[in-house]
């Protein structure tokens, strides 16, 4: 079976049979084509079938008839010229199942298009923010764990969900405040509110849902923790405004992001142990200033143009010196928190590793390279994990060290009592 085309021109009818189905390699020309005729030719799709094939295949002939084709005999076979441009279908009539599956795929695609802007509004595609919000909660929960025990997995899971929801709510609030600013910054122009994918009213409704879910999570805790957690909502709302007022918005972000260092302890113990939690909280604030200053260096050119303030602009070329100072303050407060909790050597080892990590991060930082700043910022997830791991291992090691102390004290007590009894026995012998 050969597929072809028919050329027609003003000088007469010339048939060019060219192209073949995959199983045919024949190319036939019914009449030579001259250059003068070629100028006036027009291509009309056609189907060329051998005469013997059509003669022996009534079904194919009826199919041709159904497609409304004119047929004419040709020296090389049967030439058919369609009344309308068309081709034979590659498959039969689609079944109901295939139609349904196509509709389901279309509906799924539609739902994905509707949900995608809200997912990006929550920064689901950038989970680093949720981790940075969770780690202070995890540190506090692990520090409050009794010696020799693992952190409460239920509390860790609950705070993980809460960190995910509240980070998303914070991003929604931030984008609602900063619609005018984000439109002027290259990195943020594609955000859903700026691009018009979500209306401000819809974002407010979505924010109400996020805060509702966050409240449900908070209500799983004790009343002390509920009041303490609710008091942080003011920081969440006010933080986005700070970049318009002060060069220290990162300080306000640190105060907001590390509230979990207080909340985690109260959730497990019923109240905050300030002697341990306050140094942990201050260490977290210093850490936030370090990583968010690095993050802010990505947008410092745009910030200068539109008049937005940040520690990146405040520190300028002295950024590495400032970040080194905050790193020292962070390490010092972590050591103080460990001393208040009677932590052991795995905890202090993790602090040493964190100090080395941050020192390398600051030393190799290129504040004029946005890509390098983004990479350094994301690597702070490792800092949070290292400290959490050190707290867990240090707390587990406490039991072993306490047992050794008890054993040694018991041994020394028994030896002293034996010495005393021996002295009394000898005194009796002398008296006799």
From TrEMBL:
A Gene Ontology molecular function term of the record: 4-hydroxybenzoate polyprenyltransferase activity
Topology relative to the membrane, per the entry? Multi-pass membrane protein
Q: Which NCBIfam families match?
A: ubiA_proteo
Q: What does this protein do?
A: Catalyzes the prenylation of para-hydroxybenzoate (PHB) with an all-trans polyprenyl group. Mediates the second step in the final reaction sequence of coenzyme Q (CoQ) biosynthesis, which is the condensation of the polyisoprenoid side chain with PHB, generating the first membrane-bound Q intermediate.
Q: Which organism is it from?
A: Anopheles farauti
Keyword set, alphabetical order: Isoprene biosynthesis, Membrane, Mitochondrion, Mitochondrion inner membrane, Transferase, Transit peptide, Transmembrane, Transmembrane helix, Ubiquinone biosynthesis
Q: Which residues form a coiled coil?
A: none
Q: In which pathway does it act?
A: Cofactor biosynthesis; ubiquinone biosynthesis
Q: Which domain of life is it from?
A: Eukaryota
Q: What is its main location?
A: membrane
**Record-linked PANTHER family:** 4-HYDROXYBENZOATE POLYPRENYLTRANSFERASE, MITOCHONDRIAL, PRENYLTRANSFERASES
Naming one, the record's GO cellular component terms include: mitochondrial inner membrane
Matches recorded under InterPro entries: HB_polyprenyltransferase-like, Prenyltransferase, UbiA_prenyltransferase, UbiA_prenylTrfase_CS, UbiA_sf
State the name under which the record lists this protein.
4-hydroxybenzoate polyprenyltransferase, mitochondrial
Q: Where is this region: Disordered?
A: 406-432
Q: Which reaction does it catalyse?
A: all-trans-nonaprenyl diphosphate + 4-hydroxybenzoate = 4-hydroxy-3-(all-trans-nonaprenyl)benzoate + diphosphate; all-trans-decaprenyl diphosphate + 4-hydroxybenzoate = 4-hydroxy-3-(all-trans-decaprenyl)benzoate + diphosphate; an all-trans-polyprenyl diphosphate + 4-hydroxybenzoate = a 4-hydroxy-3-(all-trans-polyprenyl)benzoate + diphosphate
**Low complexity bias: start-end ranges:** 407-418
